[in-house]
């Protein structure tokens, strides 16, 4: 049941983050890592991209949740579902940081597109 609850939360917040991202850098909500908070450009890019990633993670957890109900074997364990969720969050953060580092320098300036 943890996976289905997490799926709903991640999809909902991912959608909100994509469609209604925080307009300015803040310390309350949004994807807040040091690189994401360097400047407004990194902030805007990170909010939209992380919202999409949250929706993907939510969909994955929804599949895990439905699978745990349909085939209640080892994955129906709350500990297993929690571990899957936490690993997914870590992977999402790594993916987001790789995306930002591909587009921005460490100081937050956009990388120039080369040939």
TrEMBL record:
<feature type="transmembrane region" description="Helical">
    <location>
        <begin position="83"/>
        <end position="100"/>
    </location>
</feature>
<feature type="transmembrane region" description="Helical">
    <location>
        <begin position="50"/>
        <end position="71"/>
    </location>
</feature>
<protein>
    <submittedName>
        <fullName>SdpC immunity protein SpdL</fullName>
    </submittedName>
</protein>
<keyword id="KW-0812">Transmembrane</keyword>
<dbReference type="InterPro" id="IPR025962">
    <property type="entry name" value="SdpI/YhfL"/>
</dbReference>
<dbReference type="Pfam" id="PF13630">
    <property type="entry name" value="SdpI"/>
</dbReference>
<keyword id="KW-0472">Membrane</keyword>
<keyword id="KW-1133">Transmembrane helix</keyword>
């Amino acid at each position: 049941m943890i996976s289905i609850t997490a799926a709903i939360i991640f999809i909902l917040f991912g959608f909100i983050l994509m469609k209604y991202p925080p307009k300015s850098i803040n310390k309350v909500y949004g994807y807040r890592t040091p690189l994401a908070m360097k400047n407004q450009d990194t902030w805007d890019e990170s909010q939209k991209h992380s919202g999409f990633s949250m929706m993907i993670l939510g969909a994955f957890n929804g599949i895990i949740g439905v699978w745990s109900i349909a085939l209640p074997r080892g994955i129906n364990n709350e500990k297993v579902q929690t571990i899957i969720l936490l690993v997914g969050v870590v992977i999402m953060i790594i993916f987001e940081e790789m995306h930002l580092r591909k587009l921005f320098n460490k100081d937050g300036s956009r990388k120039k597109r080369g040939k």
